[in-house]
Amino acid sequence: MNEFPKEMKIDIKIDDQEAAGKFSNFANVFHSAEEFILDFLFVNPAPPPGFGKLMSRVIMTPAHAKRLLLMLQENVRNYEDHFGEIPVHQQPPEMKSVQ
């Protein structure tokens, strides 16, 4: 069985525009048997009628999606241990999915 080293040093090159990041206040996740698609959006809630813009789309294998889930769970747990519980507010029903 192939095992990856526990830690791996990878030099990452990033330009200034990418390093600044993109703000997202909404996400959609879709999947097929072969891939997960994560869409990160900015949804302006100001009526009427508001607007949404796709800020980034990430496509990954199911195995990588599961590794991401585990990594996020660990990081949220560490964050809450240090800063306290993150409150989760329900999204309004009309924002469950953006088409």
Structural overview:
- With 99 residues, the chain is of the alpha+beta class.
- The chain has a domain at 23-84.
- Helices cover 26% and strands 25% of the residues.
- A three-stranded antiparallel beta sheet has the order 1-2-3.
- The model has no long low-confidence stretch (mean pLDDT 88).
**Lateral strand order in the biggest sheet:** 1-2-3
Note the run of SSEs as H and E.
HEEEH
Share of β-strand residues: 25-35%
* Shape, principal axes of CA atoms: extended
**How many E-type strands?**
3
The main β sheet shows up as: 3 strands, antiparallel
C-alpha Rg (nearest Å): 17 Å
Counted by DSSP, the helix tally is 2
Tell me, rounded to a whole number, the average pLDDT: 88
The residue ranges in which pLDDT falls below 50 over 5 or more consecutive positions are: none
Task: Report the end-to-end length measured between terminal Cα atoms.
Answer: 42 Å
The computed structural class is alpha+beta
Helix content estimate: 25-40%
